Here is the input.
Amino acid sequence: MKNIFLLLAISIFISCGSKEEKKEGFEYNRTQKEVKKSTTVGGSEVPVDLSNKGIGPIETVDFSNPIDVEMVTLGENAFKQKCMACHMANRKLIGPAMSGIYDRRSPEWVINLLLNPTQMLKEDPIANALLKEYNNVMMLNQNLTQDEARAIAEYLRTL
Here is the structure.
């Protein structure tokens, strides 16, 4: 009888060692920050490609230094009226956060998306990946003029 208890005690001691178990299934770690900077379109990854100019009338954009304050004011007003329903500066909403947009996209791409969202969402690989990332919620065409789109682009520089 003593041998059975001894054997049982040893087996319990061995099974309680530092062996790590991996659990299958979903795990969420709130402290982990994940930054997606992929160069491929796959799953829900969105590529970062600053050489992509998008599809539309804008081929080059030269941002002046310093920032054009008058244009920023016009852009901020247009952004608040036409973009804030889906976009916030520092957090995702229905669409991506706008802060740091020029670290992920070229200015030409941004303005072409503002002017030509329907075609961009169909034909541009980055826009298509963003569409998938945001549950196929399409960006609406706000019928912006090139001046309005340029002003919004200038405002986005300040975020």
Observations:
- The two ends are 75 Å apart (CA to CA).
- The first helix runs from residue 2 to 15.
- The chain has one domain: 38-156.
- Confidence is low (pLDDT under 50) at residues 28-44.
